[in-house]
């Protein structure tokens, strides 16, 4: 008798929270006390000794249970599908999840439901890459361009990027891809670090960490700004004195300002030669970003960490509102939608410098940036991936940084799997860490 095809039998979910607020790791002007968290999903199958698929979306503590509930709502679309079906065409599953006629009302294509869709879609890509025995960046870079185009939803994009234009970009990207793969494996991908710049750190800690970053080979650091202008001027002065004139300093306001305030504040920091101002205002304010960009040049404007879908990215590019596109691996609807955003940025000639940090975002987004280099743009000029040095120890395939550069992953998959012992310890509220924490009984993280 022929063997029945392997099927997805479960979508397991976990509410994972880390107490990062206690050391002010991740603190910024809008989010002073984040507990970095992940709504974590695992696709189990009935394939004997077969791999699982891992995915997650990133939150900062309270509300992570809402994100987990959104993952639960997607189970009926996933459980029961054959493994071959979803791995051969993740785009079909993505379209079904996005197109659910009732769940779509909660977006559409934005917010908690869309992030949950991204986590499930990313778990499918992790499963597909594990079955193929390749790291995801390599699976994407070596994929047939026609197949990749078929993974993208061009609805609402065709006035800016057509399937034919996307196919041309991918076909041109195949030229020299083998050489770039070799260079990537040999030399890695440039990184910058935000680790010195959290807003809650005092000047001594900023000084020490900035000096350590330069010594470790980083040629760009980032500082959080936006709470107090005098403090920001002082901190930027301290950082510039430490790193010298040849290391870039980016600044990040985390959506804190109105338009006029963003212009005034950025101009006040201009003497310290900021490379970009990140998230100067609401991520939904396309025209506001365009106005800020015109007013603060030559300081560049960067955004994307909270941009909710490919349509808003399209408008940012069409209106000339950004100098730097910052994709996030867990904010939009997964790999498929990020493929669209990468191709949009390539068409408009705008460099992509991904947002990372958080829980596992470095692990995920490195794959997308490396695919972009190998198979789309062919360059790392003015392109860097954010790096934050915490929580990597909780992953089975953590990022590796050498001389200020990401080392290309070699293990199969999307680097998304958490260690079982970390799940057991940091599941909220019943994990061993939180069960012993006095604040957990009150229903919130510390």
TrEMBL record:
Cofactor requirement: Mg(2+)
EC assignment: 4.2.1.68
Record Pfam families: MR_MLE_C, MR_MLE_N
Lineage: Bacteria, Bacillati, Actinomycetota, Actinomycetes, Kitasatosporales
Residue span(s) of domain Mandelate racemase/muconate lactonizing enzyme C-terminal: 203-299
Top EC class for this record: lyase
Catalytic activity: L-fuconate = 2-dehydro-3-deoxy-L-fuconate + H2O
Molecular function terms, GO-annotated: L-fuconate dehydratase activity; metal ion binding
The name this protein goes by in its record: L-fuconate dehydratase
UniProt-listed SMART domains: MR_MLE
Source organism: Streptomyces doudnae
Keywords: Lyase, Magnesium, Metal-binding
């Amino acid at each position: 008798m022929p063997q029945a095809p392997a099927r997805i039998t479960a979508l397991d979910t976990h509410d994972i929270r880390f107490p990062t607020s206690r050391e002010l790791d991740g603190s910024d002007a809008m989010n002073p006390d984040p507990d970095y968290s992940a709504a974590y999903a695992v696709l189990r199958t009935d394939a004997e000794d077969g791999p699982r698929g891992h995915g997650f979306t990133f939150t900062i503590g309270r509300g992570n249970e809402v994100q987990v509930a959104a993952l639960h709502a997607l189970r009926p679309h996933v459980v029961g599908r054959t493994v071959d079906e979803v791995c051969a065409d993740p785009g079909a599953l993505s379209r079904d999840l996005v197109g659910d006629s009732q769940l779509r009302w909660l977006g559409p294509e934005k917010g908690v439901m869309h992030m949950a869709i991204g986590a499930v879609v990313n778990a499918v890509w992790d499963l597909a890459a594990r079955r193929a025995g390749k790291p995801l960046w390599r699976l994407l870079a070596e994929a047939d361009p026609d197949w990749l185009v078929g993974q993208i939803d061009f609805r609402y994009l065709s006035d800016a990027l057509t399937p034919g234009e996307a196919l041309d970009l991918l076909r041109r990207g195949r030229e020299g891809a083998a050489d770039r793969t070799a260079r990537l494996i040999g030399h890695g991908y440039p990184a910058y670090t935000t680790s010195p710049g959290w807003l809650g750190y005092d000047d001594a800690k900023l000084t020490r960490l900035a000096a350590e970053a330069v010594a470790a080979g980083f040629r760009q650091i980032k500082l959080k700004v936006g709470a107090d202008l005098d403090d920001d001027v002082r901190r930027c002065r301290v950082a510039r004195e430490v790193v010298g004139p040849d290391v870039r300093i980016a600044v990040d306001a985390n959506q804190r300002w109105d338009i006029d305030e963003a212009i005034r504040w950025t101009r006040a920091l201009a003497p310290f030669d900021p490379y970009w101002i990140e998230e100067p205002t609401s991520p939904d304010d396309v025209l506001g970003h365009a106005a800020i960009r015109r007013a603060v040049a030559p300081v560049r404007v960067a955004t994307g960490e909270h941009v909710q879908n490919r349509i808003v990215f399209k408008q940012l590019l069409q209106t000339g509102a950004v100098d730097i596109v910052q994709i996030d691996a867990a904010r939009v609807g997964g790999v498929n939608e990020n493929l669209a955003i990468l191709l949009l940025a390539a068409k408009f000639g705008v460099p992509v410098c991904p947002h990372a940090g958080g829980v596992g975002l470095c692990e995920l987004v490195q794959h997308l940036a490396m695919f972009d280099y190998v198979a789309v743009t062919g360059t790392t000029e003015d392109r860097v991936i954010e790096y934050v040095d915490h929580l990597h120890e909780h992953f089975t395939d953590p990022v590796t940084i050498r001389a200020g550069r990401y080392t290309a992953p070699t293990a199969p998959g999307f680097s998304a799997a958490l260690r079982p012992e970390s799940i057991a310890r940091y599941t909220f509220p019943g994990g061993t860490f939180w069960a012993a924490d006095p604040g957990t009984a009150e229903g919130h993280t510390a």
